[in-house]
Write a structure and sequence with these properties.
This protein is 41% helix and 12% strand. The protein contains 15 helices and 12 strands. Strand 7, helix 9 and strand 8 form a beta-alpha-beta unit. By secondary structure, the chain is an alpha/beta fold. It has a 6-stranded parallel beta sheet, sandwiched between helices. The chain has a 6-stranded parallel beta sheet with strand order 9-8-7-10-11-12, with helices on both faces. The relative contact order is 0.12.
Length: 424
Amino acid sequence: MPDIAHFLFNSLVSVGHYSPLVPIAQVLQDAGHDVTFALDAPAQIPLDHLGFPTRVLGQGMTIHAYLKSYPKIDQFGPSAKLNHLMQEVILPQALQMQDGLSALYAAQPYDVVVSDLFAFGGRFFAERNNIPWALVSVFPSWFRLPHWPPYPLGWRPSGSFVGLMWYRLVNRLIERRLSPVDQAINHARQQLGLNQITKPFGEGTLSPYLNLPLWPDCYDYPLELPDKKIHRVGASLWSYHPPALDVSWIHSLPQTKPVVYATFGTVQPRYRQKVLSIVIRALEGLDIDAVVACGWDNDPKDFKSQSSHVKVIPYVPNDIMIPKSSVVIHHGGYGTTQMCLKCGVPALIIPFVIDQHEHAARCRYHRLARRLPSHLVSIRRIRKTIRSLLDNSVEAKNCQNWRDSVDCDGHIQAAYLLKKCLID
């Protein structure tokens, strides 16, 4: 193994995508290795300030910005929306990044590429130049196996013959719906002189070198993994602390009432804002203290509460707010879900897209959280569920037990495997 190895991290510019990579990069950097981030647009969180050289190599259009420019896309079905974003944003940026990646490689050859699931630019370049690469994912069971619960419907495993046959049928239907995505990926591969592969957005996304799902074994379903060099390593968690952010008020929250924290992510599309407004109205009618994070792009005044015990703010770090909470209402994003488990806090999960349904399903399977589909959200249902979770619920007891056993050092194990499997 070289004394100093150079790792290139490639991710979409979405906080939920690159924040789990930050702790892994920090471990590698602390061990004396060089780490560079290659992104498709400027990051909302300045990674340069964390000591990581960052290169913006794409066209500078984030998925969130694209959705704001073309709001009608939110009305598309899940597969049509994914296909559109793949063909209009994700894959074009992956192709545009190739010249920039070549220039980076010429200036300082990197030994390993670490790729987020939706960051195709880095892995395409690694394949073209025979560079070892690893896939790091926060998407449970993103590869589609015939007998597994259909992704991303949030279904639990089936032990019956009829259930397995039903899953096989549904998985085939999903494959057909996603065939335009597979074709678009293979078309991009063809443009770069790469071979066509089977299920490029399913099992074909897996790296032949190393694949790192960032959650512990006990979190996933008890299903046998395919022999594809997959290592569940545990959670990799990181919260951004803006230098000018005052969080002293959190430590002075009164201890006389339960604290309920609500967040639907640091960036919240329009459809989440509507649900968040209902959540705020529901919290106003409960005998609690509530903190609601409405997202960086939103003005808290647009969500102003009629109650003094509901505080609406743009952002608060999860690693400070969740340990102070009795219940968390969230969207099922990776970071928030795993932080709740680390802190032993039960949750009401209202999932909206893809992986959020899967995280909600696993928490429900282990009885660590309640799940409420976004189209069924109402003031009455939210209040009823929060009262139940606060009333010595099974979920609260299970979360306390989970806190003592869950592995939250996934970033350390991931860094170790990156060095051992790809450099040694």
